[in-house]
Amino acid sequence: MVRGIHSWTRGLLVALAVAAGFALLLPRGLGWLGHSLVQRDEIERSEAILIENFAPDYLLFEKARELLMDGWAGRVLVPVQASPNGERPNAVSKGFVEVMAKEARIPEPELIPVREVEPITLAVAHQVRDRLLGEGVGSVLVVSPGFRSKRSALVWGSVLGRAGIRVSVVPVFGQRTPENWRDTWHGWQEVILQFLKLLYYRLAVL
């Protein structure tokens, strides 16, 4: 009986030790997860700023204006969903971009009509690449949502890099950052979703 009690006690102590270790290591691991999604480039002066416009995000336009005013590039390009004929921007998408560019005080952003087909980021990158090559643009700064920026660097770097176009990615954060994303349910949703998409692009797309 005594031996059974001692065995049970040892098992409980081992379980508690494992649980304590897990509790201590989990925050560090989760902290790494957020940072692993962020691209940290040394940006360089480029010919154009490219705003990722897969979902309306005014903060990207604010950052683009900051880069523009600081002399990092001389023009701002924004991919927008194309109209059915594929030659002009969709009126609604164009309207969203024009409002955000106006509020951010970006003078004359250049819209690039694109067709959004799966996988969307890769398809858009190929269409933008054709536009850049046609205009002889050799370097771009890609302004990207922070937790998406690692995937952006992977895709844009692959597609544009093969065409001889230099790419730097500038991550932009709002209220959710690599340090505090675990504080909200929306933070969990965003980080897990971006992690899965990054994994998908690495394993199945590129």
Q: Would you state the CATH class?
A: Alpha Beta
Q: What is the spatial order of strands in the main beta sheet?
A: 3-2-1-4-5
The best one-word shape is: globular
- The proportion of strand residues reads 5-15%
Number of helices: 6
Any idea what the CATH architecture is?
A: 3-Layer(aba) Sandwich
- Secondary-structure element series: HEHEHEHEHEH
Biggest sheet character: 5 strands, parallel
Question: What's the structural domain tally?
Answer: 1
User: Which structural class best describes the helix and strand composition?
Assistant: alpha/beta
Distance between the termini: 61 Å
Unreliable runs = 1-6, 11-26
Q: Helix share of residues?
A: 40-55%
Task: Summarize, please.
The protein is α/β, with parallel strands linked by helices and 206 residues long. Helix content is 54%, strand content 14%.
Description:
By secondary structure, the chain is of the alpha/beta class. The protein has one domain (48-205): Rossmann fold (3-Layer(aba) Sandwich). It is built from six helices and five strands. It has helices spanning 2-36, 58-69, 91-103, 120-135, 149-162, 185-205; strands at 48-51, 76-81, 110-114, 139-145, 166-172. It is globular, with a radius of gyration of 22 Å. The chain starts with a helix and ends with a helix.
